[in-house]
Amino acid sequence: MSPFNQTTDNHQNFILTGIPGMPEKDFWMALPLCLLYSTTFLGNVIILVVIKVDRSLHEPMYYFLAMLAATDLSLSLSSMPTMISVHWFNWRSVTFDACITQMFFIHTFGGVESGVLVAMAFDRFVAIRFPLRYATILTHGIIGKIGATVLLRSVGAVLPVPFLIKRLPFCHSNILSHAYCLHQDAMRLACADTRVNSIYGLLAVIFIIVLDVLILLISYFLILQAVLGIASREERLKALNTCFSHVCAVLLFYVPLIGMTLIHRFGKHLSPIVHMLLANVYLLLPPVLNPVVYSVRTKQIRQRIVRVFCGGRIGP
């Protein structure tokens, strides 16, 4: 029997997990989840709408911010259906194909977010190092190409994952560790050699996450060099202040991601609740807090949002 036939014959569904060991508490998890998803949707949509309708925000920095908001929204929506169904309705069963589809989108948009953060670091470097040529370097065409490259890179890296999972036989447990599907979580349930999946997953992480972290470190080293070359102390502080929101977004994304990866590799002895909490923080926290950080720290965004809610004219 082929691996494909074993997979579909033995396990047509996966069982998702809510709060490990405390299924009776799942309903109480649903209320904050709905609040988080509502906040995520509202915050990121507001950012997108304000940037779209206000012509004074049609600049490279805000185009990249719009990319980040769209990615956060997509990443959040990728996990929402199963998260809500598990915690609110106690619907834990998900079909094999639906699980693979969700897996693809979660990993793809995670990679896109990492790439967008790198693009935003490049934007800050150009703005600080070449302020007079900023608009001529980051033209609409260049920004579009950067966005397309980030998306295509992530799709290309994640595209083999569904096929690698599809070929595996699942003839033991079909209970996943989270309320959504991840490649590494499904892979551990296979009753066959998963070295190909593990090696490819490691290569994909190196190609996207590790490479992006290195580029971010180099970018901020160059940014600091450029800032130190500015004569005026006030101008140096002003230049660093424009990077603060981006640094917060980087930390919000990479710290939970690195923590989740380390715990998955080396923390198998830890409580399942720790795994569940960190995985949920990785998926839920950045999309919720990024709009808040940029709204509070970016004067132009904050002013435009206030004008929208006050019914005033949006303008410079």
TrEMBL record:
InterPro entries: GPCR_Rhodpsn (IPR000276), GPCR_Rhodpsn_7TM (IPR017452), Olfact_rcpt (IPR000725), OR51/52/56-like (IPR050402)
Keywords for the protein's UniProt record, in alphabetical order: Cell membrane, G-protein coupled receptor, Membrane, Olfaction, Receptor, Sensory transduction, Transducer, Transmembrane, Transmembrane helix
Membrane spanning residue stretches: 27-50, 62-84, 104-122, 134-159, 199-223, 244-267, 273-294
Chain ranges of the G-protein coupled receptors family 1 profile domain: 43-294
Primary subcellular site in the record, as a coarse category: membrane
Any one of the GO BP annotations: cellular response to lipid
Domain of life: Eukaryota
GO CC aspect terms: plasma membrane
CDD domains assigned to the protein according to its UniProt record, in alphabetical order: 7tmA_OR51-like
UniProt key word Kinase: no
Cell compartment(s), UniProt: Cell membrane; Membrane
GO MF annotation: an example: olfactory receptor activity
Similarity comment: family membership: Belongs to the G-protein coupled receptor 1 family.
Function: Putative odorant or sperm cell receptor.
Protein name: Olfactory receptor
Naturally occurring in which organism (per UniProt): Canis lupus familiaris (Dog)
Lineage: Eukaryota, Metazoa, Chordata, Craniata, Vertebrata
Encoding gene per record: OR51H2
